[in-house]
Amino acid sequence: MSDDRRVAFLGGGKMAEALISGLIRSGGRSVEELMVTCRREERARELAGKYGIAATLDNAEAARWANVLVLMAKPQDIEVLLSQIREHVTPEDLVVSFAAGIRTSFVEKHLPDEVPVVRVMSNVPVMVDEAMSVIAAGRAATERHLAITEELLGYVGRVLRLKETHLDAVTATSGSGPAYFFLLAEAMIEACILLGLSRDVATDLIVQTMLGSAKMLRDTGKHPVELREMVTSPGGTTIEAIRHLEEAGVRAAFLNAIDAARRRSEELAQGGDESED
Fold it and tell me: Does 130 lie in the same domain as 15?
């Protein structure tokens, strides 16, 4: 069994940096057990200086060094990346792919036979250690490989395991979801300003209200309807607002928008249907 402590992040973007930072802060990995690859020399120097980890422009070098390779490249760059690391990856390694819309079958096709691949769909709150990550196993990935991936991602948020067939739905919900909340926050802040509050006050009011509401949902375990009814008294202000939201078709708009995002995720996917495997 290989040593799974050495982790290389292939691609030094914001998501990779957030994961590296979380692993070091939590003690999940020491700086000696991490490496990152970057396209630009100045970015490699920046990450090496900031975190004390090895940084290189050479993906093949990172693949030779590490036992766990985390692919953080953009989807359009993933094929080139796989060609660079192919001859340095063995079935003793683990390849974890963050590339949106790239199916495990696509990654497996460009690597030697029996290399274990785990696909991840995470989201932007990884930057504040509150990510929602979903992982799915490729053909050669075992329980051990899922557990390693789960451990790495557990330092920066929650992790769920699902079948890969569900990942387009995950992309449309938790993957894109932060944008829906930011849009809602933006609209509520604008409404506060319309009512005469300053932008600073409006932002404080709405951000804390959203944070508190999310914590109530998580910590009470109550259904959203129950919590909404707690705030909605007969003939009061909240029910008047809810009536206008329902008349505007907000609920249906969310359903349709998320379904459209799921369809788009399917369109963008590379690697063929899982049923081919």
Answer: yes
